[in-house]
UniProtKB/TrEMBL annotation:
<feature type="transmembrane region" description="Helical">
    <location>
        <begin position="340"/>
        <end position="361"/>
    </location>
</feature>
<feature type="transmembrane region" description="Helical">
    <location>
        <begin position="239"/>
        <end position="258"/>
    </location>
</feature>
<feature type="transmembrane region" description="Helical">
    <location>
        <begin position="101"/>
        <end position="124"/>
    </location>
</feature>
<feature type="transmembrane region" description="Helical">
    <location>
        <begin position="156"/>
        <end position="175"/>
    </location>
</feature>
<feature type="transmembrane region" description="Helical">
    <location>
        <begin position="367"/>
        <end position="387"/>
    </location>
</feature>
<keyword id="KW-0472">Membrane</keyword>
<feature type="transmembrane region" description="Helical">
    <location>
        <begin position="33"/>
        <end position="57"/>
    </location>
</feature>
<keyword id="KW-0812">Transmembrane</keyword>
<feature type="transmembrane region" description="Helical">
    <location>
        <begin position="279"/>
        <end position="300"/>
    </location>
</feature>
<feature type="transmembrane region" description="Helical">
    <location>
        <begin position="196"/>
        <end position="219"/>
    </location>
</feature>
<feature type="transmembrane region" description="Helical">
    <location>
        <begin position="131"/>
        <end position="150"/>
    </location>
</feature>
<feature type="transmembrane region" description="Helical">
    <location>
        <begin position="77"/>
        <end position="95"/>
    </location>
</feature>
<keyword id="KW-1133">Transmembrane helix</keyword>
<feature type="transmembrane region" description="Helical">
    <location>
        <begin position="306"/>
        <end position="328"/>
    </location>
</feature>
<protein>
    <recommendedName>
        <fullName>Polysaccharide biosynthesis protein</fullName>
    </recommendedName>
</protein>
């Protein structure tokens, strides 16, 4: 647990340290832009494999065999995405004016794709710390290069942030090539592979679209930070969402350790009281801490406190309610009702788009209000749906 928090602390701090050390607003918002693009794309490229993993494992008669087939399937998916990424980099380099961001986007996409899968795999094998070792090593490596460059007085380069992720992505690519093409696979059944991919898509396609929509809403501002905002507003949005990430990191840390307990619960229509209260308790503590830290930062760095505080409250509130929304919607997946999650996401997208169209105010205020209202109303609707489906807290 301690290593997990250390890893997430480094993830949280890396972009902030770049901003603090090198004082370059454009570089900072560029890093957040790369992160946001990757976050939006990742739900589509993993085909829902990591999410379906728990459902298939829970319902499998031979859980050991299920683990093996998922690993082999993922390695082939990783190879495919890697090849597509390399082609896109080559086309961008030779066919268009070269955009260096694409290298960082592809490498981070592969890194997140792998670590999300490993988190599921090692959680099911009761070795969740192994997934942490992977991300911790990559992040510590990037942090070390960052400190070395800063104290040496060298000019900053974006690859410092992504060096650990790039190296891991390349290393795992070679491992997949060796495992798939050179190691013996006598026990591998292509029919099982095709069946698994089909089952994954049938199970996950509503979730894929739902997560894509929700991530697009949450990251909409940062994806347009270089084109529709001035740098000051872009930094404000990016920093407050970075501070709010502490709430999400608390959510994901707790989630990683309780998700198996939730999925193996035999009664599908029970929300376990002890897990829910523990989750809400830790999440609320994170919320209070983020509010305090953000307010201190705003007081020392901004003059128009009413405006920046209002925007910050909307962004922080959206993150808090989005985490609760994500926790509750896991229960739809347990009963294989992912279509409900898609309907809720479509409702959220409708509210978000309508507010973007109807509100005639500054872009940052507009997206902050749209994000908060669309997320909060979707949470209320989800609670109502759970109630109508006779879910009980017990």
């Amino acid at each position: 647990m301690a290593l997990s928090y250390l890893d997430k602390a480094i993830i949280f701090l890396l972009p902030l340290l770049v901003f603090q050390f090198f004082k370059d607003q454009r570089v900072y918002v560029s890093i957040e832009y790369i992160y946001s693009i990757t976050t939006v794309i990742i739900p589509l490229v993993d085909l829902g494999l990591a999410g379906y993993f728990f459902y298939a494992y829970r319902n499998s008669d031979n859980q050991e065999a299920t683990l093996k087939i998922f690993v082999k399937t993922f390695q082939r998916l990783y190879l495919l995405i890697s090849c597509i990424g390399l082609v896109l980099i080559a086309v961008n380099y030779y066919g268009f004016e070269y955009e260096p961001f694409i290298v960082f986007i592809v490498s981070r996409l592969l890194f997140v794709l792998a670590t999300v899968f490993f988190a599921s795999y090692y959680r099911l094998t009761n070795k969740p710390e192994k997934a942490v070792y992977i991300t911790l090593f990559s992040n510590v490596l990037s942090l070390s290069f960052l400190f070395a460059y800063f104290f040496s007085g060298l000019e900053f380069s974006l690859w410092l942030i992504f060096i650990g992720q790039i190296l891991f992505s390349v290393f795992y690519l070679f491992k997949c090539v060796i495992d798939v093409f050179f190691k013996e696979n006598k026990d591998f059944d292509n029919h099982k592979l095709k069946k698994l991919i089909l089952s994954t898509l049938l199970f996950s396609w509503p979730s894929l679209l739902q997560v894509f929509i929700m991530m697009y809403i949450t990251n909409y501002g940062k994806m347009h930070v270089l084109t529709k905002m001035n740098l000051d507003d872009g930094v404000l949005l990016s920093l407050v969402q970075r501070f709010s990430m502490l709430i999400f990191l608390t959510h994901s840390s707790i989630w990683a350790f309780i998700i198996k307990d939730i999925y193996v619960e035999k009664n599908l229509f029970v929300i376990r009281r002890n897990l829910l209260y523990k989750y809400l308790g830790f999440l609320t503590l994170a919320l209070v801490f983020v509010i305090i830290v953000t307010e201190i930062y705003l007081v020392y760095n901004y003059v128009d406190l009413f405006r920046v505080t209002s925007i910050s409250a909307l962004i922080i509130g959206q993150t808090f309610f989005a985490c609760i929304y994500a926790y509750l919607e896991m229960h739809y997946g347990r009963e294989n009702k992912n279509i409900i999650k898609l309907y809720l996401a479509l409702f959220s997208a409708f509210v978000f788009i309508m507010l973007l169209i109807l509100l005639d105010i500054n872009f940052l205020e507009r997206i902050s209000i749209a994000m908060f209202v669309s997320t909060f109303t979707s949470l209320l609707l989800s609670i109502f749906v759970l109630y109508k489906r006779n879910y009980k807290i017990a």
